[in-house]
C-alpha cells in the first residue's frame, strides 16, 4: 500500500485544528508536510532484500542478535512504544546477513502496531524466510500510552516472546537463549 502524502497532510491539519491549534502558525506551518515525509521514510524501510547465504550451510548453532533498538506507534493511541528486540535462530542449511534481522524489526515496527503482534510477525517472517530449526524473539518495550497518559507512570517494561520450532519444543535450547540474552527465568 502506497503512502498518500496529501491525505496525511489534510488529516494532520484537521487534527491540529481539532485540538485547538492554528496549523498556520510559525511552529506548525510545516508539520503536516514533515509528518507526511516521515511516513514516506518509514514506508521505504519496510521493503528490503532478505539475502540468504548457503555457503555457511554446515553452521547449525544458535545465531543471536540482541538489543536491537526499535521504535513503533501504539495503534490504539498513536503514541510511541520503544525498546529492544532480541532475536535468535538455529539455521538449517542457510543463514541470513545479520543486518537483515535488524531490517526485519524495522519493517514490522515502523507502522501502527501492538507489541504482541509485532513479536509474532517478526518470528513468523523469520521462520518463513529462513526455514530454520527454530526462531526465538523477545521484545522489551516502554509504552508512552501508559507512561504519559492512563496510569501516567514511566518506566514500566512490557516483555513479549514468540518461540518457534526447537525453541518451543526443547527446554534446554530455550534456556540457553534466555541465558545468552540475560533473561533467565522468563
Automatic annotation (TrEMBL):
InterPro entries for the chain: GTP-CH-I_C/QueF, GTP-CH-I_N, GTP_CycHdrlase_I, GTP_CycHdrlase_I_CS, GTP_CycHdrlase_I_dom
Residue span, GTP cyclohydrolase I domain: 8-181
Top-tier EC class: hydrolase
Chemical reaction(s) catalysed: GTP + H2O = 7,8-dihydroneopterin 3'-triphosphate + formate + H(+)
Binding residue positions for Zn(2+): 74, 77, 145
Superkingdom of source: Bacteria
GO cellular component annotations of the record: cytoplasm
GO MF terms, alphabetically ordered: GTP binding; GTP cyclohydrolase I activity; zinc ion binding
Key words of the record: GTP-binding, Hydrolase, Metal-binding, Nucleotide-binding, One-carbon metabolism, Zinc
Protein family per UniProt: Belongs to the GTP cyclohydrolase I family.
HAMAP family, per the entry: FolE
Name of the protein in its database record: GTP cyclohydrolase 1
Organism, scientific name: Thermocrinis minervae
Gene it is expressed from: folE
Amino acid at each position: 500500500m502506497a503512502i498518500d502524502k496529501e491525505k496525511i497532510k489534510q488529516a494532520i491539519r484537521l487534527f491540529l485544528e481539532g485540538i485547538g491549534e492554528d496549523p498556520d502558525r510559525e511552529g506548525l506551518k510545516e508539520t503536516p508536510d514533515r509528518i507526511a515525509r516521515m511516513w514516506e521514510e518509514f514506508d521505504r524501510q519496510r521493503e528490503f532484500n532478505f539475502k540468504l547465504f548457503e555457503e555457511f550451510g554446515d553452521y547449525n548453532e544458535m545465531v543471536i542478535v540482541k538489543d536491537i533498538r526499535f521504535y513503533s506507534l501504539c495503534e490504539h493511541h498513536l503514541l510511541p512504544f520503544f525498546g529492544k528486540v532480541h532475536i535468535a535462530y538455529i539455521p538449517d542449511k542457510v543463514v541470513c546477513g545479520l543486518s537483515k534481522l535488524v531490517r526485519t524489526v524495522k519493517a514490522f515496527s515502523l507502522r501502527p502496531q501492538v507489541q504482541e503482534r509485532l513479536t509474532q510477525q517478526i518470528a513468523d517472517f523469520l521462520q518463513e524466510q529462513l526455514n530454520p530449526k527454530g526462531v526465538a524473539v523477545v521484545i522489551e518495550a516502554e509504552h508512552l500510552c501508559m507512561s504519559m497518559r492512563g496510569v501516567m507512570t514511566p518506566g514500566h517494561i512490557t516483555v513479549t516472546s514468540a518461540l518457534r520450532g526447537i525453541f518451543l519444543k526443547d527446554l534446554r535450547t530455550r534456556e540457553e537463549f534466555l541465558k545468552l540474552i540475560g533473561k533467565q527465568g522468563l
